[in-house]
Specification:
It contains 14 helices and 16 strands. With about 400 residues, it is α+β, with helices and mostly antiparallel strands. The protein folds into three domains: about 110 residues, no CATH class; about 100 residues, Phosphorylase Kinase, domain 1; about 160 residues, Orthogonal Bundle (Phosphatidylinositol 3-kinase Catalytic Subunit, Chain A, Domain 5), CATH 1.10.1070. The strands form five sheets. It has a five-stranded antiparallel β-sheet. Strands 6-7-9-8 form a four-stranded antiparallel β-sheet. The radius of gyration is 21 Å and the shape is globular. The N and C termini lie far apart (about 60 Å). The C terminus is likely disordered.
Length: about 400
């Protein structure tokens, strides 16, 4: 790969600034002079719009800034990238942050683009989803011959999260489509689709979701719209928070939301999402599972995503509630009060979500049974093992 001394970063056609590496392999960023006059901060808390050079810290993003780390793949995308590089005769551990960002080029999540681009944007027109799913299974099983890595990297090279997924362009827009992993039940796509519909019923703002070919869960990309790309930053990137471990409390998340959006209605939306996560036991609520979007010069909470029951980090919520990984009702309202949310309105939201879930129990799945069996629950043994076990238990009871 080409050795780079610096890369340039663009947002919707405007040069944002330049990124280089210090001798200590820390990212050094400086805004472009024109962007300082006409643009807005791409990361208000850690890269405010002002002159000067910003130096990143080594942790938690290995010397990178959170907003640029958001562009890089993790989990499944990292697996693909490393195998893609290995097939090209490149040792993944030998390439630095600048080179990794240049590999993303203009194909990353959100709206930031990195030049010079090692690989240019592919037109990921809708392909055979069955083939992509089968290729993903082969990759997970370490069988990646016959061009499977190249094809999947084209469709998913910048994707995040643990489950296999691809970005595809349909006639009606751009979608993210997920496939099952080896530990998932056969109907995992339908399960996630049902929870997306349930979230909407409970008043959660969700992107459009769809069940492709009867089994592949798809979600319309909220970082794309009719005008093009939408600048997006995760809570991890915004707050310099490590998404791999518990690093946030909802009180911090609420305060950050209010400071960034300057709109209490956005905080109420986040409160509703927190309540939903708690009541369905979605404990994999780590810092990358919350995001903010910049639209028309204003920040707002992004639509929700990755809403499923899960065991989380050691069986507890990854983002704590009033310092508790296993919260009580009083903790929910203590967090709300910490940022000034009205008690009566938060109580109404709590009851709305609770009643909605009680009225739609048939499409819900319990993780209580699996949690009792797991001696060391973790994020890697999450929703899908739980659902798989629960479905088997229900079948056994019916057959008796």
């Amino acid at each position: 790969m080409t050795k780079l001394k610096k890369i340039e970063i663009f947002l919707q056609g405007a040069k944002v600034g330049s990124l280089a590496l210090t001798p200590e392999n820390l990212c050094a960023f400086e805004y472009d002079a024109d962007f300082l006059r006409t643009g807005v901060s791409i990361s208000p808390f850690y890269l405010p719009l002002k002159t000067g050079v910003f130096i990143a810290k080594m942790q938690p993003f290995g010397g990178n800034f959170g907003v640029f780390s958001d562009s890089l793949p993790d989990g499944w995308g990292n697996l693909l990238l490393d195998r893609y590089l290995t097939e090209k005769g490149i040792k993944p551990y030998q390439i630095n942050i600048l080179q990794r960002l240049s590999l993303i080029g203009n194909s990353g999540r959100g709206a930031l683009e990195y030049f010079p681009a090692e690989i240019h944007n592919w037109e990921n027109a809708a392909s055979d989803l069955h083939k992509l799913a089968n290729d993903a299974e082969r990759i997970l099983n370490a069988d990646y011959s016959d061009g499977a890595v190249d094809l999947l990297y084209q469709y998913a090279g910048s994707s995040g999260g643990a489950r296999p997924k691809v970005f595809v362009k349909m006639a009606d827009g751009e979608w993210l489509v997920k496939f099952r992993s080896s530990t998932d039940p056969e109907n995992v796509g339908k399960i996630e689709y049902n929870y997306s519909l349930l979230a909407k019923k409970c008043g959660i703002e969700m992107p459009e979701t769809r069940l492709f070919e009867g089994k592949y869960f798809g979600v319309r990309r909220f970082d794309r719209n009719e005008l093009g790309k939408v600048h997006t930053i995760s809570a991890a990137g915004l707050l310099n928070a490590d998404y791999r471990i518990p690093s946030l409390d909802y009180s911090v998340l609420f305060a950050a939301c209010l400071k960034l959006t300057r709109n209490m209605e956005e905080v109420y939306k986040l409160f509703r999402l927190m309540v939903f996560n708690i009541l369905i036991k979605n404990r994999d609520d780590h810092a990358k599972n919350f995001s903010f979007v910049l639209q028309n010069g204003e920040w707002r909470l992004s639509p929700a995503y990755d809403l499923l029951p899960s065991t989380g980090f050691n069986g507890f919520h990854t983002t704590t509630i009033n310092g508790q990984g296993e919260p009580k009702e009083k903790d929910i309202f203590a967090v709300a009060a910490s940022v000034g949310l009205a008690k009566r309105r938060t109580e109404e939201i709590f009851e709305e979500v609770k009643c909605c879930l009680n009225q739609n129990k048939k499409n819900q799945y319990s993780i209580d049974a699996i949690e009792k069996r797991l001696k060391t629950p973790s994020r890697t043994r999450n929703t899908y093992l739980a659902v798989k076990f629960f479905c088997k238990e229900k079948t056994k009871k019916k057959s008796k």
